[in-house]
């Protein structure tokens, strides 16, 4: 019966509905509305928004949101993965219908209030957000705030600023913090009206960096210090601070890598190469325990030498990159090669290989130079089959016998240890791969015959070997 009524209802057109309303008296319409709106609080709130002129009762929405949230939380106190998307969809529906209706009526304060409630409610529950839907919902709220800020008056803008900074100060989750900061720094930093947000953001970002710096007990305090220090630098640039003042502020946070990186990049842009070079050399010492970061600084130092015309230093730094800081990097290797004539290069290349540490991986360089004999030697000495399979297609044409011998050695070592059927299937796949190499078919039959005798008490293994015949 329900399905039939729904189908009939969907067939009613706008003209039919309009005719029915026109035929009804005012008293009948009012009585009908009161009866319907009493049963549905959300519909009543939508009615208020539609007619305008009434103060929207946000508490009605909040109660509805609370009820939905509690239904999903249940007695567990968290929302599991299976129900997470449904919960987030219901929260999103409020944004797409109710908040949008408020925006259309230019009820900006109410739209902000309701979107904030949804933002805090969804962001504050325990939820398995493996699909990332929560982040999308929070971004939806942030988009709404930016829309409001484009059209709202200075009073509403001020309320939004105070709400964002207040909640960032009180502590929120990383997801929530990121969305709020985006609105604060990307939107308010573009205005300088009666609220003087540039000055406010200068003071706020400076204070946040100082406060975070005092949090010595937090393992990730460094991340937050750098973030807020860089926000402050961004505001200093917008406010028109001179270069010396900005660089002086950088020196206050000199122990932080990202601040030094900003300083270095600024110097490079302004062609202050001597300052950039000095900062890079110091940074490589300060971050010596971070090899990846040192490599990045080493490359920037190479570029600083090149751009400043210090050709000899540039060449020395490039050599250091190739042999120590970033060995195996083909771009640097090719760049260094461009300094030498062909008859010089062979000798230089040997010096490079001699200078490489035992932990360097010269295989890419061997391949680049077509030194297949050395590449083969490297492959044969490498443990396991990963490196062999990486270069198999390059080497198998000229070194089939050696490649097959490596496969045989590694497979026999694997087979010496009993395993499960899945592992036996992996070994069978390797045998099939061997068979595709010249001379591999005979080698595979030899291995299979040996295994059938040696491991006859492993029925799962013997069964997987049936595919190779007798």
Entry summary:
With 470 residues, the protein is mostly helical.
The secondary structure category is: mainly alpha
Separation of termini?
A: 69 Å
Which H/E pattern describes the elements? HHHHHHHHHHHHHHHHHHHHHHHHHH
Number of strands: 0
Mean pLDDT: 87
Describe the global form.
flat
Give the tally of structural domains. 3
Query: Low-confidence stretches at least 5 residues in length (pLDDT < 50)?
Result: 1-10
> How large is the share of residues in beta strands?
under 5%
Percentage of residues assigned to helices: over 70%
The biggest sheet, with number of strands, parallel, antiparallel or mixed sense and barrel status, is: none
- Rg of Cα set: 34 Å
Number of continuous helical runs: 26
């Amino acid at each position: 019966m329900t399905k039939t009524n729904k189908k009939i209802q969907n067939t009613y057109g706008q003209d039919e509905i309009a005719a029915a309303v026109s035929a009804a008296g005012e008293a009948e319409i009012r009585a009908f509305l009161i009866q319907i709106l009493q049963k549905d609080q959300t519909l009543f709130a939508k009615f208020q928004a539609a007619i305008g002129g009434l103060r929207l009762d946000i508490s009605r929405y909040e109660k509805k949101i609370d009820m939905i949230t509690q239904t999903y939380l249940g007695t567990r106190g968290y929302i599991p993965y299976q129900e997470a998307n449904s919960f987030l969809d219901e929260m999103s529906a409020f944004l797409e219908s109710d908040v949008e209706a408020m925006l259309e009526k230019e009820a900006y304060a109410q739209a902000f209030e309701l979107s904030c409630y949804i933002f805090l409610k969804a962001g504050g529950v325990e939820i398995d957000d493996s699909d990332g839907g929560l982040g999308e919902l929070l971004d939806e709220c942030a988009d709404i705030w930016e829309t409001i800020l484009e059209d709202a008056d200075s009073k509403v803008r001020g309320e939004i600023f105070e709400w964002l900074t207040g909640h960032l100060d009180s502590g929120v989750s990383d997801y929530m913090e990121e969305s709020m900061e985006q609105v604060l720094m990307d939107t308010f930093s573009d205005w300088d009206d009666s609220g003087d947000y540039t000055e406010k953001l200068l003071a706020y970002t400076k204070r946040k960096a100082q406060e975070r710096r005092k949090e010595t007990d937090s393992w990730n305090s460094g991340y937050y210090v750098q973030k807020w220090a860089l926000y402050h630098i961004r505001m200093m640039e917008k406010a028109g601070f001179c270069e010396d003042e900005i660089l002086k502020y950088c020196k206050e946070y000199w122990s932080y890598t990202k601040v030094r990186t900003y300083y270095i990049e600024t110097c490079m842009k302004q062609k202050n190469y001597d300052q950039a070079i000095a900062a890079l050399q110091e940074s490589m010492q300060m971050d010596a325990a971070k090899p990846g970061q040192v490599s990045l600084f080493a490359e920037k130092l190479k570029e600083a030498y090149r751009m400043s015309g210090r050709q000899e230093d540039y060449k020395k730094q490039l050599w250091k990159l190739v042999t120590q800081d970033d060995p195996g990097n083909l771009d640097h290797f090719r760049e260094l090669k461009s300094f030498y004539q062909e008859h010089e290069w062979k000798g230089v290349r040997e010096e490079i290989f001699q200078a490489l540490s035992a932990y360097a991986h010269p295989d890419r360089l061997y391949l680049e130079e077509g030194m297949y004999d050395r590449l083969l030697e490297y492959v044969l000495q490498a443990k396991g089959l990963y490196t062999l399979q990486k270069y198999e297609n390059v080497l198998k044409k000229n070194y089939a016998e050696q490649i097959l011998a490596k496969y045989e050695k590694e497979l026999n070592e694997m087979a010496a240890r009993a395993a499960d059927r899945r592992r036996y299937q992996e070994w069978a796949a390797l045998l099939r791969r061997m068979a595709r190499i010249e001379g591999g078919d005979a080698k595979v039959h030899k291995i299979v015959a040996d295994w059938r005798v040696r491991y006859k008490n492993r029925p799962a293994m013997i069964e997987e070997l049936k595919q190779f015949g007798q």
